[in-house]
Amino acid sequence: MLLDRYTDATENLKDLYDDKDSLRKDEIRNLSGPNEFKEFYNRLGVIREFHRLHPSEVSVPMSLEFEEYTKMRESTNEDFVNLVDFKDEEGYGKYLDLHEHYDKYLNLKGADKVDYITYVGVFDRFYEISKERKGLEYRKYLEGLLEYLYEFLTRIKPLTDFNLILKTAQKEFQIQWQAGQFPGWPKDKHAGALAHTGAHLDLSAFNTWEELATLGLDRLKSGLMALGLKCGGTLDERAKRLFGTKGKSLDEIDSSLFAKTKPGKKSTKEEKDFEKHQEIASLEAQIYRLAELVSEQRSATKENVTRKQARTAGEKEDSEEEEAESESEDDDDDDIPYNPKNLPLGWDGKPIPYWLYKLHGLNISYNCEICGNFTYKGPKAFQRHFAEWRHAHGMRCLGIPNTAHFANVTQIEDALALWEKLKGQKSAERWVPEQEEEYEDSMGNVVNKKTFEDLKRQGLL
């Protein structure tokens, strides 16, 4: 509800700032011109004319709308209580439920057989899986995992724009992919015709094709195959063909010399495989980003599963019985509890026993005038309220500090009288220099300040 309200208000604000009808621009120009007060009084006249024509028009304050939201939140109706649906395993967004994806992971070809707790901690380590195992089933597994994480995050953080987060992750992925730095997907390196290693030949060391022919048929064949050139013919033909590529790039070599596919250029199948690999890597990049956002839930899930597995068989049976009892009690909770004496409700939603009600003194009511004649049930709540905000606010309104002197004082008149008495005692106890400051004359007699000054004026010291 509040999310819909937030979305509507945001869209309205965006439309106002876009100012497609130029009304905002005209309004700013009118108010910032030399006749801004004229524009103000014109608008004031329009408002007065509207209320003159519609005297019974009532403006609904926004507080009523939020009061409706409060009633909906406090309502026991299931439509309002469960505004967001969570599975039992998710604990209202505290934990992850990856059991379905765990089963799919185990069914992947060549997947490591790990337990569920280990899987929760390593489900985003895609770089440990070899490229050859990342096929169609692996892609379906990634799509399901990405969909679950996205849907889970939108439920626990409805105000966050996860589409924007995924777009940012895609941009970062493209940069890493082009540079060949994305984890688990090293870039295939294709070299030119001048600097090669392995079966390639460094032709800069040869000045003529005759020198190149001294290497033999097999070495020339491997050098031609490394460049993708035709490798048949005699020794001289191979040496001339290979020496003709010296100082040239692959694009400068005559296309008739190549065998079938030009090296460095991908065939149609290679291009399709490259696109498939890029799409799979893109899914991995998005899951990497979302996995960072659920790191807290992952830790809580591992602790929760470990705690459940540590329970004995007897504890599991007891918990199952408690769940069954709670379900049966939930069915009975639909009826209004019988409460003729209007007793307080306990943790189970039922009235507490009458003996417990009297034991805690809840049948005794205490009224506090300082708190606005608020009534407290029981001595415990009454004693505790002196340190709470309501009583402190009442004392502050009276201009009296809420100290221990005013404990158990509930009447305004008594509090004011005690405050005046305390102020009188404090003034009486205040140090008065004229009476309490002592002086010593030349004879060693100790007198107060007033007597000392009188004797001094008379010259008797």
Reading the helices and strands in chain order gives HHHHHHHHHHHHHHHHEEHHHHEEH
The overall average pLDDT, rounded, is: 80
Overall strand count: 4
Q: From the alpha-carbon coordinates, what is the Rg to the nearest angstrom? A: 43 Å
Form type: elongated
**Residue share in β-strands:** under 5%
Give the count of helical stretches: 21
Percentage of residues in helical conformation: 55-70%
Q: What is the first-to-last residue Cα distance?
A: 90 Å
Biggest sheet architecture: 2 strands, antiparallel
Classify the secondary structure makeup into a structural class.
mainly alpha
Strand order of the largest sheet: 1-2
Low-confidence stretches: 189-198, 262-266
Question: What does this 3D model show about the protein?
Answer:
With 461 residues, this protein is mainly α. It is built from 21 helices and four strands. A two-stranded antiparallel ribbon has the order 1-2. Strands 3-4 form a two-stranded antiparallel sheet. Strand 1 and strand 2 form a beta hairpin. Helix 8 packs parallel to helix 13. The longest helix is centred in the middle third of the chain and has 26 residues. It starts with a helix and ends with a helix. The relative contact order is 0.05.
